[in-house]
Amino acid sequence: xxxxxxxxxxxxxxxxxxxSWSAATEEEARVKVHEKIADFxxxxxxxxxxxxVLEVKEGSGDSYFECEGCSA
Length: 72
Fold this sequence. Notes:
By secondary structure, the chain is of the alpha+beta class. It is about 20% helix and about 40% strand.
């Protein structure tokens, strides 16, 4: 599993940013990150453009990723 960092833009506001997701493939990560950005930005999926992959970090087997609610 790898962690994919994507660029994104909210069309209605012009806001740009970056968001990452861990998945087995880039396609799977792209779908999940698209849904999560729309949720965080309180907007519809069609208002979000997920752009290029900025970075891919391969899992080393000795690390883990926490979800946003797990570390609170």
